[in-house]
Amino acid sequence: MKSSLKIGSVVGIPIKLHITFLLVLPMFAYIFSVNPQPFGFAGVEPPTMKYALSAMASILLFASVLLHELAHSYLAKRYGVKIDSITLFLFGGVSAMEEIPKKPGQEAKMAFAGPLTSIIIGSICVSMHRYLISQNPALSLNPVYLIFWILGSMNLILGIFNLLPAFPMDGGRVLRSLYARKMSYAKATHRAVSVGKFFAILMAIFGIFVGNLWFPLIALFIYVGASEEEQSTQTDVALRNILVKDIMTKNVIFVNPSMTVEDLVQFIFEKKHMGYPVIEGGSLKGIVTFTDIEHVPYLERSMTLVSDIMTKNVISVSSNARASDVMKLIVSKNIGRIIVVDNELLVGILSRTDLIRILKLRLES
Question: What are phi and psi of 305, to 5 degrees?
Answer without folding.
Answer: -95, 160
